[in-house]
Write a structure and sequence with these properties.
4-stranded antiparallel sheet; Pep_chain_release_fac_I; 6 strands; peptidyl-tRNA hydrolase activity; hydrolase; 3 helices; alpha+beta; single chain; two-stranded antiparallel sheet; elongated; Aminoacyl-tRNA hydrolase
Length: 141
Amino acid sequence: MADEIPLRGGVAIPRSELSWRFSRSSGPGGQSVNTADSRVELRWNLAESGALPSVLRTRALERLAGRLVDGSLVVFAQEHREQLRNRRAAEARLVALVTAAIAPGPAARRPTRPSRGAVQRRLDGKRARAITKQQRRRPED
């Protein structure tokens, strides 16, 4: 395996900053007596990491605030029977979370005004709807 996990734009997470913890899985591969610890917990201390530039780290900390535990991003994987496949799944989840968190936001919306035709169509629709509702009323005596 490589020394770093690539994210985007030349940014990568060093594997030395990751901490792994293994335990018995509640699902496949975790119920029998002679099974390996197939459940994987991957922890990365985002708040103290030097892998991200300060701008990206701040953006990621803001966007992932609800998922952080003491400044660390924790990802679990237990859907596979093999520990190695769960490790890969946890890494893939970590990459997806961090990549989405450091992505730039959408471009600012430039306000526009509706065209004259659009305004006219809207008013015509409102008039037609008003006439439809007037015809549903009881006739005035």
